[in-house]
Amino acid sequence: LYIYVFSFFGDDSATKIRKQVKKTNLFAGFLYLCVATSKLCVEFFIMIRNMDNEQRIARAVELFKMGYNCAQSVTAAFADEYGYTEEQALKMSASFGGGIGRMRETCGAACGMFILAGLETGCVDPDDRQGKADNYAKMKKLAGEFREKNGSLICAELLGLRERKPQVPTPEQRTESYYMKRPCVKMVETAARIWANRKDLQ
């Protein structure tokens, strides 16, 4: 046990456990070990989860910089958690980029979160009113967090467009200037981080 604790958490934690066992009787020492190791295991799994979350957030940003739209990038970074392949995720979210079909409506990155919310808590029973309510409540929290962090949910407002002029369906070419003038990378990262930390939302 000493070697196990030392391997993951360093000498300090392992030494404390070893000293405590020496100070107490065997039964008390055993109880202490159970409590101490369970706490350490929880911390260890939280650490692993956080590492996985950071990798998924980085993957979302990477996908966007590869040329996928904002909704695709967020959705595809997490879709495997729900049994979907990356290709399936890219297809199911393809139409939501550019503020839904490049109409500059609801931000595609936020839409990516909403798609994931459906995969996680979506209701499949038409008579399940509570299931619908739970899903809508999650959506409201996600939308509120995104709006609070970015000032809006609307693509046109996030891009600083004063007027919602008709947009051609052809997306702009991804160049260095494209990424410099647009906040989209930040929106993708923010949406991915909100989703990764969704269990912390009040």
Number of strands: 0
Q: What fraction of residues sit in β-strands?
A: under 5%
Oligomer: single chain
Dominant shape = globular
Number of helices: 10
Which spans of ≥5 residues are poorly predicted at pLDDT below 50?
1-9, 44-48
Secondary-structure-derived class? mainly alpha
First and last CA, distance: 38 Å
Major sheet:
none
Report the order of strands and helices: HHHHHHHHHH
**How much helix is in the residues?**
55-70%
Please state the average pLDDT score.
84
Characterise this structure.
By secondary structure, this protein is an all-alpha fold. The protein has helices at 2-9, 11-23, 26-66, 70-78, 86-93, 108-121, 129-150, 155-158, 176-181, 184-196. Helix 1 (2-9) packs antiparallel against helix 2, helix 6 (108-121) packs parallel to helix 10 and helix 7 crosses helix 10. The protein is globular and about 75 Å long. The model is unreliable at 1-9 and 44-48 (pLDDT under 50).
Relevant terms:
mainly alpha; disordered N terminus; single chain; globular; 202 residues
Quick structural gist:
By secondary structure, this protein is mainly α.
Layout of helices and strands, plus pairs?
Layout: H1 2-9, H2 11-23, H3 26-66, H4 70-78, H5 86-93, H6 108-121, H7 129-150, H8 155-158, H9 176-181, H10 184-196
Helix pairs in contact: 1-2, 2-3, 3-4, 3-10, 4-5, 4-6, 4-10, 6-7, 6-10, 7-10
